[in-house]
Amino acid sequence: MKKLIALLLIGTFLLTACGNATSSKEAAGQEDTIQADANYYAQANLSSLKNKKIGITIQSLDNAYWAGVMAGLEEVLEANGADYKLITCDQNVDTQIGQIENFITHEYDFILVHAADKSAVEDICKKARNKGIKVMCWDDTMENSDVNWILDNSYLGVEIGKLAGDFINQHYDENNKAKVCMIGYNSLEVLLERANGIKEGMEEVAGGKFEIVAEVDGLDPESAQMAMDDVLAKTPDCNIAVGIGSGAMIGANESYMNYYKSKIPENVGVITTDVTKRQLNSILGEEACRGLIGFEGSDVQTGTAAASMIALILADKQGAHNVYREISPVTTENVADILADMK
Q: How far, CA to CA in Å, does 115 sit from each of 120, 137, 143, 157, 260?
């Protein structure tokens, strides 16, 4: 299986992402932005990762999405002989700075950082680059990185909103408006951008056919479920939940499943983003999850894309400072194919 994944070309299930550069820094001799596609990732020589010292520090593995994609990435790195270390900082900035410092001390070739606070790690990442270490930031735009591997979160939100709008149009109209709960997390700028995009997308597709009756926080399944339980207690006919991630979907779905005793009406739906087994199985089953906006495809495909990014950066073939990732809808039409390739 590992050998198969090592040889896998990331060309399957990839669509070109849209987005505008958000960083003012332009890498020398490079355009600032690239919209990644199948041909872009196919340039990577994964076998070149052999014996490369790769340090990976991420916020947490408690999130099912991150656990899945990191497992996919680890499998590709192992299959190609990389000397890697994956650690979490538990969302503690000081811990993450210490981890990056340790990578520098031990002369790693490459550091992948999923920043707990991008501003706080700028200086230590600058130090790494001054030592000749390549740095990739996953999810944020940083100045002191070779590549920011990012999403246009406003655009992603709009696409979530459009998918929700399609569902609203199927079941509601101006005389029978959908009552919507918005599950967000305003403490993170990228997630606030995503939430605002969701509203924009719903308005574009289903304007006049819905009203937002509640806006709550729900980054993890437990908090999202508790918040949705409270919303349903106050507004029993709130039949649509839209949100910024897998936690929002899983939590809201559980709340609806409990509320309706596992007999979900056809006009009840949860639409968010991220790709986890729990979400995909819920879309396949007779539950409230109706669809999501995913990224490269399965977590194996995302892990392979991330490994391809590492190989491209090490070879100075990344071509841009900001590389935007692919996004595409996951619905009942394609969910089984993606689920078959999940970790």
A: 9, 7, 13, 21, 39
